[in-house]
Design a protein that fits this description.
32% helix, alpha/beta, single chain, 7-stranded mixed β-sheet, Maf protein, elongated
Length: 189
């Protein structure tokens, strides 16, 4: 059975590649901003589901479609920064605090439209950052395509004091949770 990742995220692609999964990436065409839900958990799960459904409905061959959506939560949902100023404000808000990273995960089998939708949550303790440190980090360009304006696997790793939960969830794809769901669909990785 084919496996499709409903995302062009280089980080999600890298995770699946390292696991030895043979997959194709097809981005969804949904406008994430138009979907607002009661809780950050509902928001992450429903965005993941909408992405997976958008891609799945256009596939003809039997396929497992994986959709994911990662957001940062600290008294409010924090997505990807719009620009450098937004990245600065986000990092200023998160530095020196503990916040949650929530990834919604949706898996759909196109042969019978069986689906499984869950979320994974990880708490992240971020060290204090000076304004100068924040500006230097933003100048690397790394924060611009990441929820919460940082990449735990990149240069921001020096500012992460600790995490409770799945590291790969913070990167954007909770591997252990995905592995268990794929086993439910009789897919071994």
């Amino acid at each position: 059975m084919n496996i499709v990742l409903a995302s062009m995220s280089p980080r999600r692609q890298e995770i699946l590649t390292h696991l030895g999964v043979n997959f194709t990436s097809i981005p969804s065409n949904i406008d994430e901003c138009k979907y607002i839900y009661d809780t950050p958990y509902d928001e992450a799960m429903n965005r993941a589901l909408v992405k997976a459904q958008d891609v799945a409905r256009n596939l003809l061959d039997p396929t497992i479609v994986i959709g994911a959506d990662t957001l940062v939560y600290s008294d409010r949902v924090i997505g990807k920064p719009q620009d450098g100023k937004d990245a600065f404000n986000i990092l200023k808000e998160l530095q020196g605090t503990t916040h949650k990273v929530i990834t919604g995960l949706a898996v759909i089998r196109t042969t019978d439209w069986k689906k499984r939708v869950v979320y994974e949550e990880t708490s992240v303790d971020m060290a204090p950052m000076s304004d100068d440190e924040i500006k230097k980090y933003i100048a690397t360009g790394e924060p611009m395509d990441k929820a919460g304006a940082y990449g735990i696997q990149g240069r921001a790793s020096v500012y992460i004091k600790g995490i409770r939960g799945c590291f790969y969830n913070v990167v954007g794809l909770p591997i252990h949770r995905l592995w268990n769901i794929l086993k439910e669909f009789n897919i071994e990785i």
